[in-house]
Amino acid sequence: MDESRSAGAARRVLFDVDGTLIDALANQRLVWRTWAERYGLDPDEVYRVALRTRPLETFAQVAPGRDPRACLAALHELEDDDVRTGVYTAFDGAAELLNALRPGSWALVTSNYEHRVRGRFARTGLPVPEVVVDAAAVEEGKPSPVPYLLAAERLGVQPKDCLVVEDAPSGVRSGLRAGMTVWGVNTPAPVDGVHRHFGTLREAAADILAFASAAESAGVD
């Protein structure tokens, strides 16, 4: 995507949460392991499926004979307990980056639920933006473009004027399908399709701020 065509327009930054701002990989693995063991399933296989599907899709594949509502309730119970008791951290540079962005210029787009995001952010010292698009806000999750398109709509901008910051293939595809600029962070190799790749969020911070402030420097709010 040609980022220069958006010069002079209001720009917004849309962040994924887990794996991008919050290091929750060990937590996710533990939650799914505990869930799998509760149902007598292979934890490694369950986690492999869960990495690329939404929970209800995961249940359909790994536990087709189980009541999906009961499966989801058990998973939510474990995830809520993790928010209260789990150990996790924000990625290096996350707090400085988010606090440097102008209020109203960024949003969170997550496959998790907002109350868990707020709990994690409170424990790691990260600010919460005005716009949070979570799993409850959309019927179609990543890799559908719907979550990122809804975030752009709530921020009052066009998709072409949004930067998506992601770590996961499904999130990258979501941003690309929404017609947005997509940068990848926190992976050793670029995810297919990203316009730029950074090994860490810290490495991307200055360029993210420059993207967000480009319209302001051009004299446009």
Topology at a glance:
Layout: E1 12-15, E2 22-23, H1 25-38, H2 43-50, H3 55-62, H4 68-85, E3 89-90, H5 94-100, E4 106-109, H6 114-124, E5 131-133, H7 146-155, E6 162-166, H8 169-177, E7 181-184, E8 196-197, H9 201-217
Parallel strand pairs: 1-4, 1-6, 4-5, 6-7, 7-8
Antiparallel strand pairs: 2-3
Helix pairs in contact: 1-2, 1-4, 2-3
Based on the model shown, name its key terms.
12% strand; 221 residues; alpha/beta; two-stranded antiparallel sheet
Structure notes:
This protein is an alpha/beta fold and 221 residues long. 46% of the residues lie in helices and 12% in strands. The chain is built from 9 helices and 8 strands. The longest helix is centred in the middle third of the chain and has 18 residues, at 68-85. It is globular and about 55 Å long. The two termini are 23 Å apart. Mean pLDDT is 92; it is low at 1-7 and 217-221.
Strand order of the largest sheet: 5-4-1-6-7-8
Radius of gyration: 18 Å
User: How would you sum up the major sheet?
Assistant: 6 strands, parallel
Share of helix, binned: 40-55%
Task: List the secondary-structure elements in sequence, H or E.
Answer: EEHHHHEHEHEHEHEEH
Count of strand segments: 8
Shape type: globular
Q: Stretches where pLDDT falls below 50 for ≥5 residues?
A: 1-7, 217-221
Number of helices: 9
Distance between the termini: 23 Å
Helix/strand/pairing category: alpha/beta
Mean pLDDT: 92
Strand content: 5-15%
Summarize the structure.
With 221 residues, the chain is of the alpha/beta class.
